[in-house]
């Protein structure tokens, strides 16, 4: 199997995040990391390749620092990576990003067929969760979203997903696109051998010209969405600070009971 897994470099979710005047997220804080939910996508792809053979290709889009996400995927076990680096991509919304990723998948498919595309369920920066559906539409592939389990058998991919009051099992012929949740697996932590091996693995750097994409069709110029207004969340006013004088536990229990929280 040849699996393309899409990974994103995002600001650390534990850091203080902010928006620029034009509504774009500040990404130069030096605390970027591989989108945590994409680790589940990488793990799902690696597990399938370990079972069926083949290779995993990690693809990322973004400025110079974005390559760190691809290198993390290589450390986990991906065989190669692609980094789309072009100033005109800055400001892309989900549709522009899907356009670029789809072009990479098609380019990889021209070299050798791609059986499966795997993404995380959401990016922890924008949290739109729209990339999987936008990318599947661009590629004309069936989408099996929010998978808690992924299996491949007899030329088809089968996923299980957990809804509030039901469990669904979906199946589609390959090639297809699957997005996985954080319930799908426990991502492996790169060991020393994997980290050293990743240094020798290739990261192909592509531009929009390499992919045949007009610059004005992506980035801020081609965005179909726009941030109209953003404001800091107001401080909560309903918090009660309790100093423990030996009775804090009792007061907390009384609060939970009074508000029917237990």
UniProtKB/TrEMBL annotation:
<comment type="function">
    <text>The electron transfer flavoprotein serves as a specific electron acceptor for other dehydrogenases. It transfers the electrons to the main respiratory chain via ETF-ubiquinone oxidoreductase (ETF dehydrogenase).</text>
</comment>
<keyword id="KW-0249">Electron transport</keyword>
<comment type="subunit">
    <text>Heterodimer of an alpha and a beta subunit.</text>
</comment>
<keyword id="KW-0813">Transport</keyword>
<dbReference type="InterPro" id="IPR033948">
    <property type="entry name" value="ETF_beta_N"/>
</dbReference>
<dbReference type="Pfam" id="PF01012">
    <property type="entry name" value="ETF"/>
</dbReference>
<comment type="similarity">
    <text>Belongs to the ETF beta-subunit/FixA family.</text>
</comment>
<dbReference type="InterPro" id="IPR012255">
    <property type="entry name" value="ETF_b"/>
</dbReference>
<dbReference type="InterPro" id="IPR014729">
    <property type="entry name" value="Rossmann-like_a/b/a_fold"/>
</dbReference>
<protein>
    <recommendedName>
        <fullName>Electron transfer flavoprotein subunit beta</fullName>
    </recommendedName>
</protein>
<feature type="domain" description="Electron transfer flavoprotein alpha/beta-subunit N-terminal">
    <location>
        <begin position="22"/>
        <end position="215"/>
    </location>
</feature>
<dbReference type="InterPro" id="IPR014730">
    <property type="entry name" value="ETF_a/b_N"/>
</dbReference>
